[in-house]
Design brief:
47% of the residues lie in helices and 12% in strands. It is built from 19 helices and 15 strands. The strands form five sheets. Strands 3, 4, 5, 6, 7 and 8 form a six-stranded antiparallel beta sheet that branches. A three-stranded antiparallel beta sheet has the order 9-11-12, covered by helices on one side. Bound molecules: fe (ii) ion.
Length: 499
């Protein structure tokens, strides 16, 4: 089953509105190439070739994703519509080597599904035709295979198996040409001109447009970070220095963005403990453009912090300094109340014990409040080349509980859990260093120590639903194990005498 040509064109138009990009024109050209070639191959259905060519990348309607994801999304979308012939092409078009592409055990659901599908699939003329046309069609027209292969390799680097794929593409080309009685290039309009063009590679969602708001001096868009996070994070280089451009989807409430900006202005611009923000030409620190909220930040020259006693010590010192800052009033969006946890895990065997643990926790909103980060750890901190610690990812920063902020790593981070053996160890070395950095020579009183550990328990509990139902039992074990280390760590910091 297939849609009509009109339906397929309409699908592509809608998809292009959902996820704009050069892929839409590429899909149109893939369809045209497939139609023109099939018209000249005896026995092939040119209309079918056109339609499956138009729809081969339809999985991109859901956003900027990787190869297996767009393949599998496209397959499922077409199957839901009942277009099984188009669904098949979605699955096969990226895999010229067919089942030989999968000489490994895939990890993601998408790849496992594709592997299973292709294992039961013998490539037919339409699979082969779209694999070929996918390589001939670009957004600005048609190009010869040799050129396209160099373009793709320049963009993504050379990967194992590429050259085997090239060989298959040339074999497909020769096969069709012998049946057409002419070159495939004879039926691709204007290829002689377009194959000589080399437009600049496309960048997603108006990064260039967004940058115009800041009036930087000849900015160049560099490396993209955290590609899978749903956020756009790009390094921007200029003659006068480097920046980081961050874009959050505009489905994010403006309050959240404004809160984040305030925290950066306070901790970064005000105190040098987070990346600074730069105002746009309008004077605002964030702008809305091309479906995103953008802000421009300082690019931190330095390194990510690591789980070592040395870095934990510095992190403890920096946390102390941050907690002592005055003059901020926005509350952190993180909940301090334990109430909602009383509705969790009602069917679990450990629920009584869990409730007893909750009962023993204080109301943190009545205890020390200060500027908090809510997720302090080496993963959210960098160290500048001059040695200063910088906190990143201020999404939940604001006024909150000092003990919850301090408690976060004591179970979540310092319990090492081996997923295979389920064995647990406690990183006393890291815990001691962090405390020593935070409390310095003053030391920590027993009362305060117990509050930090209670903070650790509540923070751990707040994450117990975050990794899905299968992780709950492991997280419960980690909680119990972490709580059991409380006295041991206390004894150790006193033997140490450095604290
Ligand atoms: Fe494609």
């Amino acid at each position: 089953m297939l849609p009509t040509v009109e339906e397929a064109l309409k699908e592509l138009e809608t998809a292009g509105q959902m996820n704009p990009g050069p892929w839409v024109k590429h899909s149109m050209n893939t369809g045209l190439a497939a139609r023109n070639i099939a018209e000249n191959v005896p026995g092939m259905d040119a209309q079918k070739a056109y339609i499956v060519g138009l729809l081969h990348d339809i999985g991109r309607r859901f956003g900027v994703t990787d190869i297996p994801t767009h393949v599998y999304d496209g397959y499922r979308y077409c199957m839901e519509k009942g277009w099984d012939e188009a669904a098949r092409i979605c699955m096969t078009h990226s895999y010229l080597l067919m089942s030989d592409e999968f000489n490994y055990e895939p990890k993601t659901e998408a790849e496992q599904a594709i592997k299973a599908y292709i294992a039961g699939c013998e490539a037919d003329d339409y699979d082969r035709l779209i694999q070929l046309c996918d390589s001939l069609a670009v957004d600005y027209g048609f190009v010869i295979l040799e050129k396209r292969f160099v373009d793709v390799t320049r963009r993504y680097g050379i990967m194992e198996g590429y050259i085997k794929g090239w060989e298959v593409a040339f074999a497909i080309k020769e096969n069709f040409e012998s049946r057409m009685g002419c070159s495939i290039y004879d039926v691709l309009p204007d290829i002689g001109r377009t194959t000589l063009l080399t437009p600049k590679p496309w960048k997603p969602t108006g990064i260039e447009g967004a940058l115009k708001h800041w009036g930087l001096n000849a900015p160049r868009i560099g490396e993209q970070f955290n590609k899978d996070s749903g956020r756009l994070i790009y390094k921007i280089t200029t003659a006068s220095g480097d920046y980081l451009l961050k874009g959050l989807p505009d489905s994010t409430p403006e309050d959240t963005v404004a809160g984040n900006v305030k925290a950066h202005l306070f901790l970064g611009n005000g105190h040098g403990m987070a990346p600074k923000l730069y105002p746009a030409k309008s004077g605002e620190y964030y702008v809305k453009d091309s479906g995103h909220w953008f802000y421009l930040m300082e690019f931190i020259d330095g390194r990510q912090m690591e789980e070592t006693p040395e870095d934990e010590y510095k992190l403890g010192q920096a946390t102390r300094k941050m907690h002592a800052l005055q003059g901020y009033s926005e509350p952190s969006p993180m909940t301090q109340s334990k109430d909602r946890y009383y509705t969790w895990f009602r069917g679990k065997e450990f629920v009584k014990e869990f409730d007893a643990i909750l009962d023993a926790l204080p109301d943190f909103s009545k205890l020390d409040q200060c500027f908090v980060h809510t997720d302090i750890g080496p993963h959210n901190a960098m160290i500048r080349t001059d040695g200063d610690v910088v906190f990143i990812d201020l999404d939940d920063s604001g006024i909150g509980s000092r003990y919850l902020d301090l408690g976060w790593p004591f179970i979540m981070q310092f319990v090492d859990f081996n997923d295979e053996t389920e064995e647990m160890t406690y990183r006393f070395d890291l815990a001691k260093s962090f405390l020593r950095g935070y409390y310095g020579s003053d030391g920590i009183s027993r009362e305060e120590y117990d509050l930090v550990f209670q903070g650790a328990v509540q923070m751990h509990i707040s994450y117990m639903q975050a990794y899905g139902p299968y992780a709950v039992d492991s997280l419960w074990k980690i909680l119990r194990f972490g709580m059991d280390q409380r006295q041991m760590l206390w004894n150790m910091i006193h033997e140490d005498e450095t604290l």
